[in-house]
Amino acid sequence: MINLNVNQKAYQVDADPNMPLLWVIRDIIGLTGTKYGCGVAQCGACVVHLNGEAVRSCVTKVSRAEGQKIVTIEGLSADNNHPAQVAWNEENVPQCGYCHSGQIMSAAVLLKENPNPTDDDIDSAMAGNICRCGTYLRIRKAIHLAAEIQRKESASK
Amino acid sequence: MKKQLNTQKRYLLPIKAVAVIGVLLCMVGIMAFGLNKKTEPIAGDTKSLVIKKDSIASVKAFKQVYTVLMSARCMNCHPSGNIPLQGDESQLHTMSPQRGVDGKGVYAMKCANCHQATNTPGLHTPPGNPNWHLPPADMKMVFQGRTPRQLAKQLIDPKQNGNKNMQQLIEHADDGLVLAGWNPGEGRTLPPMSHAAFKKAWITWLTTGAYAPKGK
Where is the 2Fe-2S ferredoxin-type domain positioned along the sequence (chain A) (predicted)? Predict the structure, then answer.
């Protein structure tokens, strides 16, 4: 059995240690917000946070995640109110929506490490998340808005 | 009497000549040994490392070293820009991941987000190593575009080689990321010689004086 902590909840899963974390999250634990895109770390649809880093769960073995802190899109905020989620909604960013849980999880790491990102910072951070609908400009706009929301939240605390 | 002295001087001339030539030959020999086969310990080393200067053997060994360092498996992580290279053709890494300050990427694009501790099985999957990274931003240790002479001089300069002394340079042949070049994952070409042959050439180059090839 492998002990996992996903979205602050403990799980014991009976899985091969070499199974990709994505399989465990979706098929065993049942959290299907994280998507399968390419399976070879090329598209970013499967991004989850592993100890705060935006890892690609399709190539991350579940053994790497054992005993670590995993956060999926379902656990990013208590009420879908992470600044990135609010901004994504405000800017109507998604088209088909398939890649956006991965996009938001990557954006969340950027916003955590850089509260006031420039366009170049956003491009550097988001270059590994592909959107077939081409929503890149709205993604960039939403990240700027999310940064603004985050700054206001910080100021009001 | 005078005639007898002159005969004696003439008799001694060949002996003097032989002695002078002998002295000269000894001096030339000592100088030659001093210039070409100088044996000296390397300062600051913890182990008893001895170098025997031999410019010809050193340059010959470096030519082998250079073919390995400029192969895709080594050069791809020593790019001239801030984006790593990828594949046997050493093209820019897809997604344009950035070096970052510590060489481990930036924000959501850190090396270890995709590169696991071991190679991911299958073609076109990320190769792995527990310490996957580029050289840091303050010491980029560029291989791409360097001539043999430039690279040789760079490699032995602590201000450009990650502050390594001779002993540390020798030990670097067995560094985990260096060894990863010979375990690159499916579909990637190996460096042009075995790791053992590379290590031998590397140590030969360093212990014969780390001479830089002539040229630009």
Answer: 1-76
Residue of B139, B143, B134, B178 lying closest to B160 (CA atoms): B139
pLDDT digits (tens, 9 = 90+) for B31-75: 444 444 455 444 444 456 788 999 999 999 999 999 999 999 999
Min CA distance, B177 vs chain A (Å)?
Answer: 20
Q: Please state, in angstroms and rounded to a whole number, the distance separating the CA atoms of residues B138 and B81.
A: 13
CA distance B107 to chain A (A): 5
Give the C-alpha distances (Å, rounded to integers) separating B150 from B127, B134, B211.
29, 20, 11
pLDDT in tens, A7-58: 999 999 999 999 999 999 999 999 999 999 999 999 999 999 999 999 999 9
Q: Hey, which CATH number is domain A2-75, 3.10.20.30, 1.10.10.10, 3.30.1330.30, 1.10.1200.10?
A: 3.10.20.30
Q: How far apart are CA B41 and CA A13, in angstroms?
A: 58
Cβ-based neighbours of B108, under 8 Å, separated by 6 or more: A47, A54, A105, A106, A107, A109, A110, A125, A126, A128, A129
At B58, list the tokens. 């050193």
Q: Is the pTM of this model over 0.80?
A: yes
Where are chain A's structural domains? 2-75, 83-156
Question: ipTM for the complex?
Answer: 0.96
Going by the DSSP 8-state scheme, the letter that residue B40 receives in this structure is E
Reduced to 3 states, what is the DSSP secondary structure of residue B108? coil
Q: What would the two tokens of residue A129 be?
A: 């998340």
Give domain A83-156's CATH number out of 1.20.1250.20, 1.10.150.120, 1.20.120.450, 1.10.3720.10: 1.10.150.120
Cβ contact B116–A124 (<8 Å): no
**Contact criterion met (CB below 8 Å) for B176 and B127:** no
CB pairs under 8 A between A and B: 69
Q: Pairing between strand A2-6 and A69-71?
A: parallel
- Please write down the long-range contacts of A30-34, taking CB distance under 8 Å and 24 or more positions apart: A31/A6, A31/A7, A31/A72, A31/A74, A33/A72, A33/A73, A33/A74, A33/A101, A34/A72, A34/A73, A34/A101, A34/A102
Best of B96, B107, B132 to mutate (most A CBs within 10 Å, chain A): B107
Interface touch A125/B106, C-beta < 8 Å: yes
